């Protein structure tokens, strides 16, 4: 079953590392096979990675876009998740960070990104620790 993206005019998205921009009108894109896709709203810029949860998201995003599960981005993700686990007194947040770590280890990078988004959306006192 293809992935259907409904794009706003001028919306940017990334497919397998290539940055693409929709034209002046709304558009629909059908991806017929597996591809690494991120929409503009899910792309984080380096300067936005200013908390442990956001640093984890940024590192996992880089891993997802490149398809790499090792190297510097993995190290940054591991450090950010370890900082969250160490500094948080919230059991649910620690468990979420561990689940993200398991997802990364198993290569489920999009699922790890989803978990990171949930951490970012957590109350500030929990996710910014």
Topology (elements, then pairings):
Layout: E1 3-7, E2 12-15, E3 18-21, E4 27-31, E5 37-39, H1 52-66, H2 72-87, H3 91-105, H4 109-121, H5 124-127
Antiparallel strand pairs: 1-4, 2-3, 2-5
Mean pLDDT over all positions: 88
Number of domains: 2
Provide a count of the helices: 5
For the largest beta sheet, what order do the strands appear in spatially? 3-2-5
Shape: elongated
- Helical content class: 40-55%
Q: How many strands, what sense, and barrel or not for the largest sheet? A: 3 strands, antiparallel
- Give the strand tally: 5
Query: Given the helix and strand composition, which structural class is it?
Result: alpha+beta
Radius of gyration: 16 Å
N to C succession of SSEs: EEEEEHHHHH
Between the first and last Cα atoms, what is the distance in angstroms?
A: 41 Å
Low-confidence stretches: none
Strand residues, percent: 15-25%
Describe the structure.
This protein is of the alpha+beta class. It has two domains: 3-42; 46-127. Helices cover 49% and strands 16% of the residues. The strands form two sheets. The chain has a three-stranded antiparallel sheet with strand order 3-2-5, with no helix packed on it. The chain starts with a strand and ends with a helix.
């Amino acid at each position: 079953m293809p992935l259907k993206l409904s794009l706003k005019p001028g919306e940017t998205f990334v497919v397998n590392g290539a940055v693409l921009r929709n034209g002046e009108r709304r558009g629909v894109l059908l991806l017929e096979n597996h591809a690494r896709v991120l929409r503009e709203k899910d792309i984080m810029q380096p300067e936005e990675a200013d908390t442990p949860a956001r640093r984890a998201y940024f590192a996992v995003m880089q891993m997802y876009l490149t398809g790499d599960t090792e190297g510097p981005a993995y190290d940054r993700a591991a450090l950010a998740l370890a900082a969250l686990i160490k500094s948080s007194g919230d059991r649910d947040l620690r468990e979420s960070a561990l689940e993200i770590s398991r997802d990364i280890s198993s290569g489920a990078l999009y699922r790890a990104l989803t978990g990171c988004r949930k951490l970012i959306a957590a109350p500030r006192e929990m996710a910014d620790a």
